Amino acid sequence: MTADYRTINRASWDERAPAHAASPDYALDKFAADPAYVSHVVRFDLPRLGDVRGLRGVHLQCHIGTDTISLSRLGARMTGLDFSPASVAEARTLAKRLGDPTDFVESDVYAAADVLPNEAYDLVFTGIGALCWLPSVDRWASTVARLLKPGGRLFIREGHPVLWSLDDTRKEDDLLVVRFPYFETAEPLVWDEGGTYVATDAVFTQNETHSWNHGLGEIVTALLAHGLRITALEEHDSVPWDGLPGRMVRGDDEEWRLAEGRERVPLSYTLQAVKMGE
User: Fold this and answer.
1) pLDDT tens digits along 186-235
2) pTM above 0.85, yes or no
3) All structural domains of the chain with their residue ranges
4) Environment class of 252 (CB within 10 Å of its CB; exposed 0-12, middle 13-18, buried 19+)
5) What homologous superfamily does CATH list for 5-275?
């Protein structure tokens, strides 16, 4: 019997969570040293986030909680949710270390509205590298809609589905080659890759993962179908990690961009939507 994708992916994230917490790329020591420090991912979107003071928010697929705690430091009353018990443990340890009131809940994202109060949140936040682990973007949009109050806001910055479709191993020329699906597929892409996306000396054994792409139109359509109104959609020429190794350079803003012809493709996007209602 084939293992469920959640079991397979959870094993990978559980093994990597401690290495991520120890990596300088997640900057936990900077969080401890500076009470005003916020993650690069959140810092990038500060002009778009606006004032979140007093908002009740939930961060879906929060991993080790650095973005969640960053939103808390900006004044939101945050809850983080993740399906990896090791990630949640690291997030709780970080919050305790920092004296931050953010709470963290262990749950699959599709079950979030079953374990958290419905229509209770002013803000649902989803960060980089989250949607690709979900087989159905429609189910995700349904979860978002159930959690948000009428008038509440979804805020998501994600890797662009165009980026996920590119061959990230090609380095011999400047061509960008579409190799993988842009649209959501019934079957996952199955990967067997060691390593991780941050600097670490850790060696991993749980290297199989299952992922899916979701076209930008599919994401927008799913949100509209579940009663959300798109209020902003901005595509960016950068991502916060080396998404195409050997082809990118890191800027002073800690974002990675194509070294040549960066205007050719969008690499990430920020989308905002508001739940319709009273």
Assistant:
1) 999 999 998 898 989 899 999 999 999 999 999 999 999 999 999 999 99
2) yes
3) 5-275
4) exposed
5) Vaccinia Virus protein VP39 (3.40.50.150)
